[in-house]
Amino acid sequence: MALAHFQRTFTDASGNIKPGLSVTVRRESDNGLAALFADAGSVTPKSNPFNTDANGYGSFYVTDGRYRIQATDIDWRNEDLISQPSPNFTAMPQVGGDPIVESGSNADGEWTRWADGKQTCESPQTAMSFNYASNIKFTWVYPVAFISTPTVVPILVYTDFYSAYRTTTTTLQYVRNIFTTSATIGLASDGGWIPADAVGDPMQGLASGRWK
Asked: CA separation (Å) from 14 to 27, 187, 211?
């Protein structure tokens, strides 16, 4: 059973911490003392009342509900304490009604596969290589293969806002040589590139297609 977690540093009206403060927790429904626990698994009971620590900090776990928290000069009414959902999926998440059946990453990027056969891949940000004066590029090997030729989109990542990419005439992002396992991504110009331009700013690829 999931438990709600209450934690707070208790202070007086002037903001001074209250170490050793005796705190009582009651159910709003019947004013009875609440069953408190020191852990989320309800293994270790916690006394009620309990005392704050040397830093004025108090913490407890309790079943979901509405509570009254009392101490010297404190009377907090109708505290709604609700447990938080587990961060672990009890079932795979769904997108548009189709569940994700697999996702992962490796040195070539990240991928996601849906039950309906769709697959998407994202490359890491990658430095290019100088090919010739009108072409700098890199070859992206997808992190997983597609069953048919995917659609690939190039992205120039302006991490340093490299000036040559803005001032060279006819700078063009492109994708070519698109296969089921790889694609070539780069920047074309009218012949203005020099070798140093290849590492000016990285590029990235997004691919969408099918795995089955």
From this structure: 28, 62, 62
Mean pLDDT, the chain, rounded, equals 84
20: left (phi over 0), alpha (psi -120 to 50) or beta: left
Give φ, ψ of 128 to 5 degrees.
-95, 175
Structural domains in the chain, CATH included, are: 4-81 (2.60.40.10), 94-210 (2.60.40)
Six token digits for residue 133: 């004066």
DSSP, res 33: B
Whole-model pTM: value is 0.51
pLDDT at 27: 95
**What value, to the nearest 5°, has the Cα angle with vertex 122 and ends 121 and 124?**
145
129 phi-psi bin (left φ>0, alpha ψ -120 to 50, beta other): beta
CA distance 132 to 90: 52
| Band (161; pLDDT cuts 50, 70, 90) | low
Q: Helix (H, G, I), strand (E, B), or coil: what is residue 140?
A: strand
